[in-house]
Design brief:
By secondary structure, this protein is α+β, with helices and mostly antiparallel strands. Helices cover about 15% and strands about 35% of the residues. A hairpin with a 3-residue loop joins strand 6 (about 115-120) and strand 7.
């Protein structure tokens, strides 16, 4: 019984608003971030480049994504999400920046616009994918929540990315 009372009392603790993090008057946080960017420990958010070859391996197969710059703010893309033999999503399309991420659109898939975030290392497709995107996938597959890691930057690497049905995803 005493244990239950203690739990109730502890549940009431911490109910007050936490104070916001105080400003960094010394600038140490900004200096640390700048140093980490300069050393390549973290990507520079102002210089993130989508162009390259991305992959993610699992027991079911290798998911792939590639992007080749086609203009100032646009890319030609290809995507492959593998859910086992005969169960894939695969399509080519285009990407363009949208806020802090990218909007992906696929050839011949009207109303299939997918949001993806990219931090310079991992591309993550939003978990909320429009029903129209089912046209680019087999019945048991979906792009929702898939993610891909940059394995090789640059247009040449992207153009070498092989698909399942599509010979070169970005070629």
């Amino acid at each position: 019984m005493a244990f239950l009372v203690l739990l109730v009392l502890l549940g009431g603790c911490g109910g007050e608003q936490q104070a916001e993090t105080p400003p960094d008057p010394t600038g140490a946080g900004a200096a640390l971030e700048k140093s980490a960017i300069a050393r390549g420990v973290v990507p520079d958010p102002s210089a993130i480049e989508l162009e390259g070859r991305f992959e993610r391996r699992s027991d079911l197969g290798t998911d792939k994504f590639c992007a080749v710059r086609t203009g100032d703010k646009s890319y030609r893309i290809g995507i492959l999400a593998v859910y086992g033999p005969g169960s894939v999503c695969e399509k080519q399309g285009e990407a363009s920046p949208n806020g802090d991420g990218f909007e992906l659109r696929f050839d011949g898939a009207k109303d299939c616009e997918v949001r993806a975030s990219y931090d310079g290392v991992e591309l993550r497709v939003d978990g909320n994918v429009p029903e129209a995107c089912s046209a680019i996938c087999d019945s048991r597959a979906s792009l929702a929540g898939t993610s891909y890691y940059l394995v090789e930057p640059g247009a040449e690497a992207a153009k070498r990315t092989l698909g399942a049905e599509v010979d070169r995803l970005c070629g």
